[in-house]
């Protein structure tokens, strides 16, 4: 009987740790979503200036795609960082840099 109690307790502890790890992944969820939406709307109205601007525009588009992928696999901190970087490149594309 003590082995059964130990096994049950161990399973409960593992389950609790697993659930708490999943709950911790939501820290950047809202920020990720807001940054992606802002980047996407800025990208749709951005006008690239010259070749350098087009390169920055392409970098921004690939970063938004990467951010969406990170969002889908619930890697919200990298999603946020990619979307933030995309917004930087969108601003650079408007300047022609």
Tell me the β content.
under 5%
Biggest sheet statistics: none
The structural domain count equals 1
Number of helices: 4
Structural class: mainly alpha
| Multimerization status | single chain
Order of helices and strands: HHHH
Molecular shape: rod-shaped
Contiguous uncertain segments of 5+ residues? none
| Count of beta strands | 0
Distance between the termini: 71 Å
Radius of gyration (CA) equals 21 Å
- Output mean pLDDT: 80
Q: Helix content range of the residues, please?
A: over 70%
What's the gist of this structure?
The protein is 85% helix and 0% strand. The protein is mainly alpha-helical and 97 residues long.
Key attributes of the depicted protein:
single chain; 97 residues; mainly alpha; 4 helices; rod-shaped
Outline the structure in words:
The protein has 97 residues and is mainly alpha-helical. The chain has one domain. The protein is built from four helices and no strands. The chain starts with a helix and ends with a helix.
Secondary-structure map with pairings?
Elements (H helix, E strand, L loop, with lengths): L1 H22 L5 H17 L4 H23 L3 H20 L2
